[in-house]
Specification:
This protein is mostly helical. Helices cover 45% and strands 3% of the residues. Strands 1-2 form a two-stranded antiparallel ribbon.
């Protein structure tokens, strides 16, 4: 895999590659098997605002439920990062209390920030302090 000037692997900038290159059937999220995740990720860029909004809710309540990292969270985050520059990310979504104001892109950046917080040093320290070392939890690593 080659890197671009910013050091990002070229394949990870293509959302289709992230979707196709991930074995979603063996991954899990808050509700069990992540086999439904590719369909919901694609729905983030749907022309219908209701469909986009439901897909955003899916990210919050299934893929990263209650700030928990699951096997499916990492590839989903890679996909979300890859679609940020898509013009359809400027489309609106129905707002919920945890969303940032603005278009889908703002809400996706907020979701990525939440994933980042759940995998950060502070989360690792807290996890270790309560007896759950993050290095023993593959989605965190």
């Amino acid at each position: 895999m080659t890197n671009d000037a910013a050091g990002v692997p070229a394949d990870l900038r293509d959302p289709a590659v992230v979707l196709a290159g991930t074995d979603w059937d063996v991954l899990e999220h808050a509700m069990g098997s992540a086999e439904d995740t590719p369909r919901m990720l694609v729905a983030l860029l749907d022309a219908d605002q209701r469909v986009r909004s439901e897909a955003l809710e899916y990210l919050h309540h299934v893929v990263h439920h209650q700030n928990t990292l699951y096997d499916a969270t990492v590839p989903a985050a890679l996909y979300v990062a890859a679609i940020l520059t898509d013009p359809r990310a400027a489309l609106p979504v129905d707002k919920q209390p945890h969303d940032f104001p603005g278009p889908l892109r703002a809400a996706l950046l907020g979701w990525l920030g939440s994933v980042d917080d759940a995998a950060g040093d502070e989360a690792a320290t807290t996890s270790r302090r309560i007896g759950f070392p993050s290095e023993d939890y593959p989605p965190f690593v």
